[in-house]
Structure formats: structure tokens, C-alpha cells
# Entry
Amino acid sequence: VSIDGAVVPVRLSSIDCPEDDQPWGEIAKAGLIKLVGRRFVHVEVHEVDDYERTVATLYVERENRFTNVS
# Structure
């Protein structure tokens, strides 16, 4: 997620998804980019994990309303 020009790594809460180097990882990443890429999102932060990623729920703006990504 880009906030004021800074990239903030976000891990989606309650989503178990393969990593980039695992089978289907690149396909999962492409699917997420298709859903949220270059769109405005509301980030509901839950915590920061051991890898310093923000764990959050994303809500994507569509037709002037926000919809949960998961």
C-alpha cells in the first residue's frame, strides 16, 4: 500500500495465501493486483507482525463505497 508516496508492506488479515516462491504464489499475487491495484483503499490495521508488516483488512473503493477484499 502506498501512503503519501511511501510503500507500506501489508499482510491481509485472515487470508492464507501462498508466498511468491510457492506454487500458485505468482497467480495469487496477480489476482490481488487485479482486485486492488491502483485503487483507493481503506486500511483497517489490526497489528504489526514479526516481519514488521502491517496486518490489516483492506476495503477497496468501488462506485463510491468500500468493499472488503477478502
